[in-house]
Design a protein that fits this description.
This protein is an alpha+beta fold and 305 residues long. The chain has 10 helices and 13 strands. The longest helix has 21 residues. The termini are close together. The N terminus is likely disordered.
Length: 305
């Protein structure tokens, strides 16, 4: 996957529905599906499949591939995702995207390329003026008076920067991230270099707290995992982006374990963690397809940039 940086200009749809001539029309955009219904259906299907898998010789992945829909792809056959992490209502700057990652899936060669967009990258147009890209969703939401159009606007900016067509997006907030990790009973990561951050943001009353973690193997709960991926005062934004990608992979590995899929209590906790905290334009059958494909990708399959 070749990433090219392009100058951003004249690419923002005018308020009221007009769009740039080289952008897809609004009618071609998939409407976002609210996650409570979507996740409920997926979890119910996974529970049934899990039971079938436990008592028979039916191949779990074959079942999902049959049930799923073919994913959208670009001219190279790649499926491209935009992964966004935001704050929640309990945090100042709830609409700022702390995490902006483009994940490009090459299913033919079983490869995933992940590119983190620096949150401090500046963009300039009529919507945001001159602002950091992590503010694009916030200003787009205000400008169009619509959250989904705010997400579409940010997606367009990422497409302009990377020259990559984004097919799907997933947005999760802080609370959903913490609850997701806790529902999995924690994740395992190897900390390459110790972190000491005396300026980790806390709340409006106590502005900062100290976050520290030693080098080596760690089992992280949701709160610690969030601090691990957000902290950057004593490391670079690139280090933080690498940690975010590392944690995404760790979550994927834990979620696909048989003991997770067959554990009804864990599934319920995962449902509760996701239903109010995630927004995506993926359809149910597309999620099933991704579930079938996920186990084919190892850590060696993932390239981080």
């Amino acid at each position: 996957m070749n990433f090219k940086i392009k100058k951003i200009s004249g690419c923002v749809p005018a308020k009221g529905g007009e769009s740039n001539s080289n952008k897809p029309s609004a009618s071609k955009k998939t409407l976002s599906i609210k996650i409570p219904i979507l996740i409920s259906l997926v979890i119910a299907i996974l529970l049934v499949v899990g039971i079938v898998k436990a008592i028979s010789h039916i191949d779990f992945n074959v079942f999902l591939k049959i049930a799923g829909d073919e994913l959208l792809t670009d001219e190279k056959g790649h499926t491209n995702f935009l992964i966004l992490g935001t704050g929640d209502e309990n945090h100042e700057g709830a609409d700022l995207t702390d995490t902006i990652i483009v994940a490009s899936l090459d299913d033919e060669n079983k490869l995933v390329n992940m590119l983190s967009i620096p949150r401090d990258l500046y963009i300039e147009d009529d919507v945001v003026g001159s602002s950091k890209i992590n503010e694009a969703f916030h200003y787009g939401k205000i400008y169009y008076d619509n959250e989904q159009k705010g997400l579409e606007y940010l997606t367009e900016k990422v497409e302009d920067i990377t020259n990559i067509d984004i097919h799907y997006r997933v947005k999760i907030n802080f609370q959903g991230f913490k609850d997701l990790v806790d529902a999995l009973e924690g994740i395992d990561v190897y900390v390459e270099e110790a972190i000491y951050d005396p300026y980790y943001p806390k709340d409006e009353t106590v502005l900062f707290e100290t976050f520290s973690i030693s080098e080596g193997q760690h089992h992280l709960d949701g709160e610690t995992a969030l601090k691990y991926v957000r902290s950057r005062k004593t490391t670079s934004d690139f280090d933080r982006a690498a940690r975010q990608q590392q944690v995404i992979y760790a979550i994927k590995e834990k979620a696909l374990q048989t003991e997770t899929i067959l554990n009804q209590e864990k599934i319920k906790k995962l449902l509760n963690a996701l239903k109010s905290n995630i927004d995506t334009n993926l359809k149910v059958k597309e999620i099933l397809t991704i579930g079938a494909m996920a186990s084919d990708y190892s850590s060696e399959s993932i390239t981080q940039r």
